[in-house]
Amino acid sequence: xxxxxxxxxxxxxxxxxxxxxxxxxxxxxxxxxxxxxxxxxxxxxxxxxxxxxxxxxxxxxxxxxxxxxxxxxxxxxxxxxxxxxxxxxxxxxxxxxxxxxxxxxxxxxxxxxxxxxxxxxxxxxxxxxxxxxxxxxxxxxxxxxxxxxxxxxxxxxxxxxxxxxxxxxxxxxxxxxxxxxxxxxxxxxxxxxxxxxxxxxxxxxxxxxxxxxxxxxxxxxxxxxxxxxxxxxxxxxxxxxxxxxxxxxxxxxxxxxxxxxxxxxxxxxxxxxxxxxxxxxxxxxxxxxxxxxxxxxxxxxxxxxxxxxxxxxxxxxxxxxxxxxxxxxxxxx
Length: 333
Known about the structure:
By secondary structure, the protein is α+β, with helices and mostly antiparallel strands. 38% of the residues lie in helices and 19% in strands.
């Protein structure tokens, strides 16, 4: 009888002890420290945001969670999501510090509400994706990127041209951590090459609209040898030429029918994927052929995801794309 009682006690107690030990050491369900929940991973610094007409004060970590889905594909690896969470947190805190603000309206990022996240992922996938994104934020909670005790500009883009650009090439100033690095896997990305075509009439219309907006805004645009639209047939060819570009093909100056654009202005006006493009004539118009997507500075998200799939950690990826930086815990105070 005694042996039977001991047997009963053992089959009840042993599973309970094993479950307790597993809970203590497994980050997924640690008691009071869930690796997937932000409840116990708050930064202690708040952002004031207006949602549906009401103002709400939320922790920076919750704010990062709302930003993250709008900045990276949902099918990227969990480690890549962690990289992006650290980048966003770094940028948000840097901007709050430099602008001396807690108001989300003063910040560059757009926060997606739960309703907007449901619309983005679909009701069927919402819970699964929300858990993944929350896990990425929670497991990197408080992590930021610094160089010499200062937050960096954690720049990123979707796809590079096969290597990232240096700050010197794009911004015209040297920034030690924003140097060009190889990201050759990007040439395999779906959006590595993007093409936009316009008929001569469409091109002239966009160019004329930009001139009107420029005149209203007071933005300076150099006009050279402009010919009246009425003086030309709608289908007549107009002059389009790249006057200046960097050694890697990033356009500095584009001339369209007498109007001079910077690369950034051309990208906005003609809805181009990047400033790295060339122009080719097609029947009845022209085609812009763009390489990469984004400004090619900092982390290539596509390249980062490929590194993650090959086993690189969040910190390995960050230190590959940003030279000489440290991933540290942010100190509030």
